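Recall from the previous lesson that a structure prediction takes nothing but the amino acid sequence as input. Here we apply that procedure to Alpha/beta hydrolase from Streptosporangium album. The sequence below is the only information supplied.
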Amino acid sequence: MLVLLAAPAHAAPADLTATEVSFVGNGGVVLHGTVLALASATERRPAMVMMEGAGNRGRQELRPEAEAFARHGIVTLIYDKRTVGYSLLHRDYSVLADDALAGLRLLRSRADVDPARLGLWALSEGAFAAPLAANRSADVKFLITVGAVGTTPGAQTAWGYGEYLRHAGVSGSLPHMLQTTAVRMTIGAGIFPEADFDPVPAWEHVRQPVLAQWGELDREALPRESGQIIREALERGGNTHYTIRFVPGVRHNLNLTANGGFDRLHSLSPDFGDYETSWIDRPARALPGTSADPVPAQDLPAPTLAPLAWYESPWLQLVALLLFLVGFAGYPLAAATRRIRGRHSTSPVRRSARWLAATGLMTTMGSLMYVFFMVATAANVIGPMVVGRPIPWLVLQLLAVATVVTTAATALSWRRHRRDLAHADQVRLGLLITAGLLFLPWAAYWGLLVP
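The prediction returns the following tokens.
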């Protein structure tokens, strides 16, 4: 039995019913959701499964949209995305497609649903999986997407970083580092799941009527480029039942915006759902071509992400960080150990060496944390800036310069006084200076020494 649980309607506005349900997705995973419908409905209605975007925010993320569609007479299913087999480091769009089809079968079994008007509504990442689902089941009679991406997730992410950084006024090496170096490194390290997924083949095989929508102020999904790519894919597959629509004045998820699409407001326009309802009820289901709404501007295309060269290997990066840790942190730890044992160094190189150890350790560890922070926040949290650079990045660049200077000073001092140094000091300084020399190309690669 597909439906495992059906609870009485509750927690819904007076004009709607909300039925809690559970159903079995891919691999036997039980998924929980809510079906929203008009309380006064007396005839079979159109219905759709709503697929959320990236992350796992739960069914409440799409609750306002689902209620709006339900008030238009569309039965909607929203559900909590799986946590088994879906995480920050692992996901499979094919699995998500099967989950959506399981929800579709649940809707099809309802007495108030018209099977001839049953479809999928997919937002952002959900629009990677929705065409796969449409290709697998004749139960999908239509497909509506919001903020669908026509490029790979990796290219889309890099493009989105650039949009947010330019909007914040960031210049210098940080945009290139995040858009190119950081994205390519996360892909190469295997911590960017589905980064190279190509959505075009799935779109080429979609035969159902398609309503593909983007907000005019979408700063995440390359709306102009994605619209063109998806249109061409549908036409190559012989599908002329599509409508490409750009919605004025709204952002990525068709919510209103007070900051040109760069904010995260949750506010729907008063007419939300009007167009979709009319489109579903239209006999032809689509008008081939693009809506009359203005096509969004797109200053830059999606970046090309070349594979990592041998010297960019994540393993080599890890080895470099370990050497930095041994060289920069090892020097003060060894000195502290000597002091505990009552041995005090009189090395003439110790002052510059201490500065090198401090600046090198702060720069490498600080850079690692800052890159992870920017990736985790999708470059949305910039903070105060000085001369076109976020203060943390500017501080890291200044520390990188200081590390190079102290490396040179320590190496010169070591050369001048090497005959006066004990063997243990020679070894410690050798590791420290080696770390400092290796730091130079590493810092240049990550943009720390680039203006």
